[in-house]
Amino acid sequence: MRDILRGGDDGVENAVDLIARAQPDILILQSFDFDLHGHALDAFADALAKAGWSMPHSFARPPNTGVMTDVDLDGDGRTHEPRDAQGYGWFAGQGGMAVLSRFPVMSDAVLDHSDLIWANLPWARLPQSGGQPAMTPDVRAVQRLSTTAHWQVPIKTPQGVLEVWTSHHTPPVFDGPEDRNGYRNADELRFWYRKLPTARAAFVLAGDFNLDPLRGDGQRAMMADVLSHPAVQDPRPTDDTGSLATADFERDIGRLRVSYVLPAACLRVEGSGLEWPRSTGGGLSRHALVWVDLRLGGRCKGAGG
User: Fold this and answer.
1) What is the dihedral of CA 283, 175, 94, 152, to 10 degrees?
2) Would the CA dihedral through 17, 22, 93, 210 be positive or negative?
3) CA distance 240 to 114
4) Beta carbons within 8 Å of 33's beta carbon, 6+ residues apart
5) What is the mean pLDDT of residues 32-55?
6) Residue 140 per-residue DSSP state
7) Do the bridges between strand 247-248 and strand 255-256 make them parallel or antiparallel, or are there none, so unpaired?
8) Where is pLDDT greater, at 184 or 130?
9) Three-class SS string for 282-305?
């Protein structure tokens, strides 16, 4: 969403126009700055309402982005810089996440996994360098798995409760030969992969996972494993050209599929697609809006709850 919002007021209008055209019942905003009293999120919801699409319910919590540690996380000999935060950021809350909804959010029942220490993940695959751990003991003791957050957000829809499992992962680049960001990106996704068999209600796994199963940097097999997991289905949303790519990084990288909406296998998919923002003075966004139209039913455990 940060890319959609770039360009000042024109960027905000661009994002509002895109969302109002898509008319989602539930919207996940990624790279949306968090502020303590939610003023920015309230203002954005107000702008949507003025554009004719009201989403009166919301959820947001402080993300890991910009949360500074006292440790030299990136090993450059300095501390208290953006890469020494739990997730890259110049200030606490930069590039967070939020959920807007037309239906009530069951905030008291949200499960927030964002403070999980990466090394404490039972199946963690920490980076190595020369056969030795690439992270110092001080780093391993404080480094959280979530770059931004990992949330399970239940929403009370007219058809029953739907859990939104969402996260925004580190790009698997901007590191060294130890591939630290690549390993972290994969483990952020592996967290959900290991939880999929435990699902007890209708859910959707959605977010910017910064990983294409076929192209680009990163441990692509992890994305392919999630897409083929029997607990989820891949609607394979496309734009009007038939492309699955959700982001256009231009130059040498080009278009990649990095954002996903993966419903539980028990849900009925009635449509899906990608919508790109209209051109503004700053040009098109790098990211498309991914949408999936779902119907809840009795096949999902807890779907009527």
Assistant:
1) 100
2) negative
3) 36
4) 40, 93, 94, 95, 96
5) 96
6) H
7) antiparallel
8) 184
9) CCCCCECEEEEEEECCCCCCCCCC
What pLDDT is stored for residue 301 in this prediction? 65
pLDDT at 299: 72
CA angle, residues 249, 145, 77, in degrees to nearest 5 = 80
- Give the chain's mean pLDDT: 91
Q: What residue ranges define each of the domains in the chain, with the CATH number in brackets?
A: 2-295 (3.60.10.10)
Measured between alpha carbons, how far is 149 from 65 in angstroms, rounded to an integer? 8
Q: 120: which residues sit within 8 A by CB, 6+ positions away?
A: none
- How far apart are alpha carbons 17 and 29 in whole angstroms? 15
- Cα–chain-centroid distance for residue 96? 9
Residue 240's alpha-carbon distances to 4, 255, 275, in angstroms, are 19, 15, 8
Higher-confidence residue: 145 or 251? 145
Separation of alpha carbons 133 and 122, rounded Å? 16
Q: Give the per-residue pLDDT at 233.
A: 98
Examine the pLDDT at 282 and tell me if it is beyond 50.
no
In percent, the amount of the chain with pLDDT more than 70 equals 92
